[in-house]
Amino acid sequence: MDVEITIFSDLPFEKTTSWGPAGLHRIDNGMYRKWGNLTFQRYSNLFRDIGGTTGIQKLSGNILSEDIEKLRLQERNYGDIVYDFHFLSPRELLQFNSERTNLSGIHFTAFTTEGRKYVPWMTERLKGLGVHFIQRHVLNVLELINEGFDVVVNCAGIRGGEVADDGDSVNVYPIRGVLFQVDAPWQKQFLYEDFTTFTIPTIESVYMGTVKEINGMSTQVSPEEREAVRQKYIKLQPAFKNVSIISEWVGFRPSRDPIRLEAIPFNNDLIIHNYGHGGNGFTLSWGCALEVVELIKNHFN
Ligand SMILES: Cc1cc2nc3c(=O)[nH]c(=O)nc-3n(C[C@H](O)[C@H](O)[C@H](O)COP(=O)(O)OP(=O)(O)OC[C@H]3O[C@@H](n4cnc5c(N)ncnc54)[C@H](O)[C@@H]3O)c2cc1C
């Protein structure tokens, strides 16, 4: 298919959600296994063929929990997609916190896709293929249809409902998160307890997090919040008591249950909504993009 593509964004990249995360590959909802699997294969290929200049890093690590059911759910969602997935043996668990007898854990190898490196890399690649990038606010999808675009793909994240302009904005909500870039270059594996207390090393940085505040809107990190995240992590890995924070970031996971990936024909044209990826946007991105391509092909064939 010979197509001309224009990407509109009203914010500088540094102000978008995709700038901040470490982007660990981990599927929260088994409904999205197909998209997560396709994306994993893409990152695996990019890491093999091009390497870290893409912002992608191959990374192993562990997730601990006192609730083994949560870990079994991880196994069902992506145990056969990532590499080296296994439940930790009692001996392996001893490396974390020897005083807790009720802890279970999983180990796996996946990829991080650090937004601030991956998105600029993709942008340059797309520019090389002739894609146009324009910084401009778009009121809604119909504005672009009326300008003569045959297909409009709405990937407006937290403002996806607003841009759809069909009443869906009530279904989109933020889950606020904070990430701290910390000075611990010796940390070479990710480590989670449940899904809010973690460190994730990327190519040059180590990120510590987080909170999951539904409908939270504050763009600031309070001193209490900073200390609470730090103390929770120190309990998990005491070595972090001497680690300093280099920078901090607040982001809003663009959430919708379920994700909206839907084609809506409009006369001879096509509107596709692709938003609401919550805390899994990097994990699902390529799989969703491939589905968008299928929807376009089906419409025009
Ligand atoms: C703390 C935190 C940790 C995370 N960790 C992970 C992780 O480990 N793994 C993972 O896979 N995901 C993670 N995520 C989730 C991931 O960051 C998001 O799902 C993803 O970045 C969303 O991308 P998006 O393109 O939908 O939205 P965005 O990155 O926000 O992009 C939306 C774009 O739409 C444009 N736009 C919006 N409205 C308009 C308009 N009216 N006109 C023109 N342009 C418009 C904006 O300018 C922007 O360019 C995390 C998120 C947070 C906050």
Notes on the structure:
The protein contains 8 helices and 13 strands. It is α+β, with helices and mostly antiparallel strands and 301 residues long. It has a domain at 6-170 and 258-300: NAD(P)-binding Rossmann-like Domain (Rossmann fold, 3-Layer(aba) Sandwich). Strands 2, 3, 4, 6, 7, 8, 9, 10, 11, 12 and 13 form an 11-stranded mixed beta sheet that branches. Strands 1-5 form a two-stranded parallel ribbon. A hairpin with a 4-residue loop joins β9 and β10 (206-209). It is globular and about 65 Å long. The chain starts with 5 loop residues before the first strand and ends with a helix. The model has no long low-confidence stretch (mean pLDDT 97). The structure holds flavin-adenine dinucleotide. Residues 18-295 form the FAD dependent oxidoreductase domain. Its cofactor is FAD. It comes from Panagrolaimus davidi. InterPro entries: D-amino_acid_oxidase_CS (IPR006181), DAO (IPR023209), FAD-dep_OxRdtase (IPR006076). One of its GO terms (cellular component) is cytoplasm.
